[in-house]
C-alpha cells in the first residue's frame, strides 16, 4: 500500500534499510517497451479508486470451466501440468474438446451462493472468478459466441456468481483471458509464444494438423471478438470492481489486443474499476526489478506475481500475489498436495507485511462443488482472521526492516499509529527485538493480555509468553505510550 506506507510513522521510516538498486532486465531485441499515453488520472484520484483494494488485502480466486470436468485426466490418462491447461497439454482439437467436455459441465443449483458464503467465512474481501479461461468457454450469455454457459446449460453463470458475491458484501472481479483456443480467428501461429492446443510450427516442423489456419486466422477479427465479449461483461452486470486480464508475453502484448482502446472502453462503463497489467508483459514470479522496469500505470493499476511472494515486495507499485492451495489452478482429482492452513495464513501475513494483497485460488469441480480440503482451510483461515484481522486489513508494509522471528504490519488510525508483530517463532531469549524509536506499550491482539516492553539502546525488546498463544501466528499490537 504505497500511500499508507509513505504516511505511516515517519520516525520509523527513517530507520528502514536502504532501498535495493534495481537491475534492469534486458528486453528481447524485437520487443521494444510498448508506447502508451500517460494516464490522465491524478494521483489523488488514483489513490481514492484503489483505496478499497489496498485495504482488502485478501481475495478469493476461482478457476472454473469445462476443464473442471476433466479433473486432470484425458481419455482416462493423467495429463501433466496444471489442470486448466489440459486441452493444451493433451493437444486436443477444439471440436473434440467441446464434444467431450460440455456434457460433463453440470453446475448444481446454488453453487454460487456456496462460493460467496465460503469467501465470506474465509475473511476474503473480494472474489475474482474466470469469466473465460484460455479454452474459450464463456460463463456468461454471449451474443458473439455459442461456446458459452447459456447455450450449454441454459444459465448465465456470471450473473449467478456476481449476484451471490454482492449478497455477501464482497467486491466482484472478473478474470478474462485474452487468448481463446476455440475461436477460429485466433492467430496463434502469427506470434512465436502464443499458446494453442495444436502444436506450434516452432515445436513441430512441418505440422499439418491445422491446414486451414491461414484462411481462418485474422488478428483484427479476433480483436473485435475479444472487445465484444468484454463489452458484454462490463455493460450487463452492474458495477464490476476488478478486471483481471490474463496472458500476454513478449511479442504478444499491448496493442496486439488493442489494449489502450480495450481499457478505455472498460473504464467508460466502469469508471471505478481496478485492472491488473496483464494486457502487457507483467511480473510473473519473484522478479520485482523486472516489474519495476516494465510497470506503467497506463498498462494497469497493479501487477501480479504468480505462485510467489517477492522477497522484498514490489516497492512503489500496487501488487497482488496470486497463489494456489495445491499445485494447480483448475480442479484436478490427482493433485492432493495441499498447503497447510499454517502456510496459507503465513503467506497472507507475509504478503501484507510487504504491502501486497493475496489472491488465493480454489478450483471447484464441474458441478461447482468446492473440494473439501479447500473448504476446511478457508474456514480455518477465517477463524484466524476473526481474531487477528485488524493486523491484516487496511495495513501497510513493515517500516522497520526484516526480523528473524516473523513479520510486521503497520497501520495509521484515528487513534494513532499501530504496529503488529506477527510472531512465527519464539526467540530463545523470550524477547522480540526491533529498531523502533520512542516508547511503546504491547498487548496480545487476541485476548488483550499486556506484555512487558523495555528499551535496550536503540532497540525495543518485547517479552513474549513462554508458550505462543497461536502456533500459526501470535500477533502482538504495539501502541505508542502516552506521555
Automatic annotation (TrEMBL):
Tell me the SMART domains matching this sequence.
Alpha_L_fucos
Per the entry, what this protein does is: Alpha-L-fucosidase is responsible for hydrolyzing the alpha-1,6-linked fucose joined to the reducing-end N-acetylglucosamine of the carbohydrate moieties of glycoproteins.
Marked site (May be important for catalysis) residue numbers: 322
Matching entries from Gene3D superfamilies are given as: Glycosidases, Golgi alpha-mannosidase II
Mention any Pfam family matching this sequence.
Alpha_L_fucos
Instruction: Say if the entry is tagged with keyword Hydrolase.
Output: yes
The highest taxon in the source lineage is Bacteria
Family, as annotated: Belongs to the glycosyl hydrolase 29 family.
Question: What protein name applies here?
Answer: alpha-L-fucosidase
Signal peptide feature range: 1-21
The terms describing its cellular component in GO are: lysosome
Listed GO MF terms:
alpha-L-fucosidase activity
Alphabetically list the UniProt keywords. Answer: Glycosidase, Hydrolase, Signal
One of the protein's GO biological processes: glycoside catabolic process
Q: Where is the Glycoside hydrolase family 29 N-terminal domain?
A: 39-390
UniProt keyword Signal, yes or no: yes
EC number(s) for this protein?
A: 3.2.1.51
Lineage in the entry? Bacteria, Pseudomonadati, Pseudomonadota, Gammaproteobacteria, Lysobacterales
Question: Which SUPFAM superfamilies does this chain map to?
Answer: (Trans)glycosidases
